[in-house]
């Protein structure tokens, strides 16, 4: 499903190249649940952003759903992203001017789903996350954990085949965090959603089926759980 071959990402600073990712190769099959771990600054988010086509590598080959992503133009890349990927960000990236309801609805509008169907899908999601009572509030009126839940609800609303999550439980209390991990496990096992998450938590990492350790911009080790 996903194949990165010899991917590097560097920044040019005064004639010197600083490598954030250095010659990373990684294959992920459909149906896997991969956890990416590693120290702060090791390149985890950069790797996830490249996988999610939000960032471009400096070098290397990137295949996703049999498409050569490194050869695609911006528009085709973004179409591919919209069709398959749901992204859960560390900072929730909610739209401040939109209510909880509207934030969750937005990806469906981009997919041209008709209004009555959108209503049913959003209602379902609000229910599932027990945030029906918050639907008319704006992000600033929510706690960090609630904003995170809305961000996750928004990522899941289009039923993506792949979920990419950067510290998805970072702002949740331990019970909410466990609920999200259980939800991911269920999506992975029952709905066959492929999940790739970045996490600092060993406990969360073990919800995955494979743990990859990134160190200094390289894949240091990989083990099946
Ligand atoms: N635009 C940029 N210019 C220069 N360096 C950058 C830029 N963006 C990111 N970096 C560097 O890339 C390195 C890796 O960042 P990245 O966010 O991928 O790490 P991370 O492993 O996800 O860290 P954390 O766990 O703290 O989120 C960092 O040292 C960062 O300073």
TrEMBL record:
* Record-stated family: Belongs to the ABC transporter superfamily. Macrolide exporter (TC 3.A.1.122) family.
Q: Name one GO molecular function term.
A: ATP hydrolysis activity
The protein in question is named ABC transporter domain-containing protein
Instruction: Write down the InterPro entries for this protein, in alphabetical order.
Output: AAA+_ATPase, ABC_transporter-like_ATP-bd, ABC_transporter-like_CS, MacB-like_ATP-bd, P-loop_NTPase
Q: Which Gene3D superfamilies match?
A: P-loop containing nucleotide triphosphate hydrolases (3.40.50.300)
What are the record keywords, sorted? Answer: ATP-binding, Nucleotide-binding, Translocase, Transport
Residues in ABC transporter domain copies: 2-225
Transmembrane segment boundaries? none
Superkingdom, natural source:
Bacteria
UniProt cross-references to CDD domains, sorted A to Z:
ABC_MJ0796_LolCDE_FtsE (cd03255)
């Amino acid at each position: 499903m996903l194949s990165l071959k010899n991917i590097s990402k560097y920044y040019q600073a005064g004639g010197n190249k600083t490598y954030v990712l250095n010659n990373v190769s990684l294959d992920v099959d459909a149906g896997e649940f991969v956890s990416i771990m590693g120290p702060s600054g090791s390149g985890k988010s950069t790797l996830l952003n490249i996988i999610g086509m939000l960032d471009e590598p400096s070098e290397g080959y990137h295949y996703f759903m049999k498409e050569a992503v490194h050869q695609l133009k911006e528009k085709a890349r973004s179409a591919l992203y919209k069709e398959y990927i749901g992204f859960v960000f560390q900072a929730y990236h909610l739209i401040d001017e939109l209510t909880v309801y509207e934030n969750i609805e937005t990806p469906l509008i981009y997919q041209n789903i008709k209004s009555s169907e959108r209503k049913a899908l959003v209602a379902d999601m609000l229910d599932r996350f027990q945030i029906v009572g918050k639907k008319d509030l704006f992000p600033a009126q929510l706690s960090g954990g609630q904003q995170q839940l809305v961000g996750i609800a928004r990522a899941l609303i289009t039923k993506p085949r792949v979920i990419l999550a950067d510290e998805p439980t970072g702002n949740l209390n331990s019970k909410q965090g466990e609920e999200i991990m259980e939800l991911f496990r269920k999506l992975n096992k029952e709905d066959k959603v492929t999940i790739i998450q970045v996490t600092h938590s060993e406990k969360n990492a073990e919800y995955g089926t494979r743990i990859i350790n990134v160190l200094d911009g390289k894949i240091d080790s990989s083990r099946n759980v």
